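anyone seen this seq b4? input:
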Amino acid sequence: MTAIAVLGNGRVGGSLATALTRAGHEVTVADRAPGTAAAAARTARIVINATPGAGSLERLAALREELRGKILVDVSNATTDGPDGLPADLIHPGSSLAELLQEALPETRVVKTLNTMLFPVMTAPAALTRTPTAFLSGDDPRAKQTVRELLGDLGWQPEWITDLGGIETARATEAAILFVPHVIRSSGFAPFAISIAR
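predicted toks r here
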């Protein structure tokens, strides 16, 4: 059992918290109330960023002390929204939210994952008709191994997980969010994920 704090109690954070609790972990969910994120992060070994990506950098940089020595699993994408509310453009072109988080939190081990799919797939990857891929980006091999094990608790088979390398590789997976609005407009809001076929 691992102490996990989920920052963000929307659809993404809520589904991750439910699935991880079901897997036997001790999960605390922090909402936007003042002080709750700091309190949750302080007692956790792993912190999951499921806050809206547009404000994640500022929100998490303020938790530098609470996140010191922790693993920060970043599942968010930082985008601006179009008129229909769907992602329209990247907030950090030429970089990524994950890279900027790692820069702002040098004593935290940031791992980017689960950001190339609609949220239902994060906790039910086997529900798709074809095998999805979960990507890992991060500079600390042990942190990535821990996150790999956490993904296993969410139903991800080892062969469905691809380690892309350092945190700079997150800019590629974050850019994949630009597929999402076009897929939704053409096929509707049905669960899907990016997958590497070999």
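The chain has one domain: 3-187. The first strand starts at residue 3 and ends at 7. kinda curious what u guys think
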